[in-house]
Each structure stands twice: as structure tokens, then as C-alpha cells.
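Write out this protein's structure.
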Amino acid sequence: MPLTEPHDDRLPQEGPVDTVRDAGGAGPDEGGLPAAVEPGPEAAGVEPGRNEAAEEVVAEGPADDGPTLEGSAPEGSADDGSTPEPEPVLPEPVRQRIVALTAAVLPGLPADEVPVPLRRVAKFAPNRRARLGAPAIAAQLTGDPLFRQRITARVLADTGDLGAAVLEGTAPAAADPVEVAALAYLARPRGWRELIEASGAAVRAEADSAVVAELVREAEQRATRAEHDRAVARVEAEKLRDELARVREELGQLREESRQLGRSLRETQARERKANELLATERGRAARAAADADAELRRVRARLAEAEAAAGVARASAKEARSVDDARLWLLLETIGQAAVGLRRELALDPVDKLPADFVADAFADQTAAPAAGAATRARDTDDPARLDQLLALPRAHLVVDGYNVTKRGFGEMSLEQQRKRLITGLGGIAAQTGDEVTVVFDGAERMHGLPPSPRGVRVLFSRKGETADELIRRLVRAEPPGRPVVVVSSDREVADGVRRHGAYPLGADSLLRRLARS
């Protein structure tokens, strides 16, 4: 393609340079190009001196059409007087190389040899000169042969042997076709159009080769991907075949299980029908049994009413008989009481301030009490809970209780403090009801602090250090006079045997617990 559109040979005063933009996107200042320091020949990559051969070539050309290179004819100088041929169509790489070569040597020209439109371009930085000033450079190379010849002289001076070969109209086989075409366009020796066409053909051939190579590479990549996809597809197919075989096997198993479940379901339904029939039969039997039970219940209720009526008659008879017995017993006790009053008066016995158990509680020392004669005659071997009320009904009876033995048997889930409090409170009720002397004994090295006050008629004792509650109970029994009823409540066999030898009445802890529960 041509460097620029064809135009006349007049040099433009203001060219496209006025519209060039800076690389950073800034426009010209106040209608002009950005100010820049004019670079010297060193900045453009050109030696400060000029090539003498190139200068001579430039000086020998005609003055009207501009200087021509040695060995070449200027454009439009044919002897037959024909019109100049049009600019050849340049490949894009050739056009860019021509602009780059011109931009590289442009700062090396004297200021008066630089066209006016390119003077500001010559001040650009090297990396922006070819990019931003390309339109103006192309226009000047096309329309100003003198400027082109000056540029050619400097470019050929830098290219050396390659430039000399191009001037002779030949191109080295190893030379870059783009470089050869650019130099041929600038120098324009004989056959330069053929060199440009050959360069264009080589560039197009390289482009076509690159396209073909790219197509071949893409085809190879597609073939590789296709082969990979084919291998993956084969693997996936194998997996799918294996999965299909497994699914078929599972399907066969599921069908077999379905058949078995169908048989089981039919058997279950048959058993359900039989169960429903049996259930209906059992419901009939249950209904008949319920009717029989209702009839029997009515008969039992009738018998119960008769028994209650008979029990009422028996209670009335027993009450009458008990009234007679109570009258006889009252007469007997009255007689005994009168006899005891007479005997007390006869013996002149005064009321005492302390009881035998008080002496044991106060002393807390070893006391030797000789067993009185006839003590064994007072022992009773009975575990009947009903005997407790009978024994407590005796005159001046003394109830001695093994405290922890009773509480741990009756309400051992409580704390010791709660056990003692509950037992002492219950014994206070018994003492208030019967008027008897009540003593409760607990194991303990010393008296517990924080105890509630004892109820009236209840004595609370704790064994001293080195002594157990069992020993203290035996001491209390030995201290009582012969003939006084002493009742000891303990489920400990040793305690029961010990107090029985001294004439006391041992009873189990259950008898007292039932008595407390009844109260």
C-alpha cells in the first residue's frame, strides 16, 4: 500500500503533525505540538559525522527534481517523456520499517533540511517519534523527493553492505525481505519496484506460512484433544459397561427380593386374616367372660353386704362383751390400787424426786448393780407388735429405745439430725398419751449440740466415750427395781438377750415404728 494518498509536489506548510497526540494521551499546547528538547544526532542513533559517499551522491543529483542516488534514475526522468508511475502498494511491515528508519535518522538532519511539518516530530522522544509522527513522515517521503534522498543517504550510511547491495539492484539471499524493500523504496535503484514486489510476496508467503503453521498447530492440537477425548470416552465406556453390569446384577437381586417380599406379603396377609378371625373369636369370649365377671361381681357384692351386716352384729356383741370385761378389769384395778395405797401408807413411802434412770444418766460412771433376785422372772420373749400397747398400759412402765437402731430401720434415707428429731417427736406423743417414762439412747462420744428441746416425759441420752448405746441400755435396765415393767425396743439380738436376762421386755423396732405410724 502507498505510504500516503497521492498529492502534488508542493511541500505542505502545516501537515498532520498538528494533530499528533502525546503517548500519555495529552494533546498539543494551544494548537501546537508538545514542547520537547530538540534531540541531537546521538539521540537518534546516528553518528555525528556524515558519510562522504552518501553526501557525494546527494550532491550530484539535478536541482529541480532533487538529487538522485548513483546508479539509479529519478522518478519520471525516462527519455520518452512518460508520466511518473504511481506509488507501489507496500506491505504493512515494509511501510512500518520505512517510517521507523526515517524517524531514526530524522533528528540527525540539519534544521534547514527538515521540512516544516516534521520539525516538531524531530523533537519527539525516540520511542514516540515513529508511532506519533508516522502520518507526517509518510506524507513527506511521498511528496518530497529531496527529503527522501537526504533520508536515504543517512539510512544507507548506517546499513553498510546491505545498502550497497540494494543500490546495485540486488538483494542478499540471507537479508530480511522487509529491510530490503524499505531500503529499495527509499533509494529507488533500477528494479526497485521488483524488489518491493518480491519483498511483499516474501512477507505474504511468511504470513501464509505462519497462518498455515498456525492451522497445522491447531489441527494437531485438535487431533491431540480428539485422541485424548477418545481415550477418555473409551475409559468412560468401560466404566459405563461395568456400571451397567452391576446395575443389571442389582436389578436381578432386586427382582428376586421383590418376589420374596411378594411371597412374604401374601403369607403375612394370610396370617393377618387368621389373626383377625382369632381376634373376633377372642373378643366374643372376652365379652362372655366380662358378662360372667359382672354377674360374679354382683354376687360377691351381695355376699359382702351380708358379711358387713354380720360383722356389724359381731362388733356390737364384742362391744358388749368388752364392756363387761372392762368393768371387771376396772374393779380389779381399783382393788389393786386401793391395796397399793394402803401398802404405801403402811410402808410410809414418800414420793421420790429422781427415778432410777436419772441416776444412770447423771452418773455416767461405772456403777456396779448386783442383779436382784428374781430378775429373770420379769423377762418376756415376744416379738408381737401388739404387745407394745399392752406393756405401755402397765402402771409406771418405762420405755427404753435404741435410737439409731430404730431410725435407720424406719427412715434411714434422712440425715442423722432429721432421724433423731423425728424419733424424739414421735416418742413425745407416746409419752403424752400414756404418761409413761420414755428414754431414748443414741451412740455418741459427747452430747450433740443444737438439739431441739426434748418433749415432756422424754429423756434423751448419748453414750459416753468408750461406751456404746447397747451398754448404756443394759445399765438403765439393771438400775430399775424388780417388778417395774421395763420395755426395751431394739432389733439388735445382743441387746434383746442382755436385757431379757435382767427381766425387761425386749421388742423389735418394727413394733415401735408401726405405733409411731399409727399416731
